Model the fold of this input.
Amino acid sequence: MRIWCLIIPLALASFLAAPGIGRAGDRQDDIKAAFIFNFARFTTWPNDSFGEHPNEIRVCFHEGHHLTDSLTTIDGKQVGERVIRLVRQPAGASLQQGCNIAVLSHSQPATPARGVLTVSDSTGFIENGGSIGLLQVGRQVRFQINQQSIRQAELQMSSKLMRLATRVLK
Done:
């Protein structure tokens, strides 16, 4: 419980400072974008997974994804030595190549790939091989982690983040 007291204020403080937060929009989607930003902060990627963009954490999603507006608020934010860059792909394009975080829609399969953290708010995402599933619990957004998917992608996740998950699938 004490960790929530540390993480939530940090997430909200960094996120509420972003432009566009005051707009009328889905606050739950804004919170999901803040979670994705924090997943980037508490995940370690293999050094060679950044390819041609060594100073970026590339967050990829398909055009028209329902989180698009909210994700734009994290574009350009600093995560350690790297900066978050959004990469909008045409529908049907692969989100596995050149991406560090793939934000998948309900219809996309969650195929683990080396160096790619997959995130979705679709039901059953982690059971189908996804890394992190965002879910609605009442009026709150929570997350679940698929530890096997994280290992297959050769990622390391902070133990603090693992403890915050409502469920860790081993």
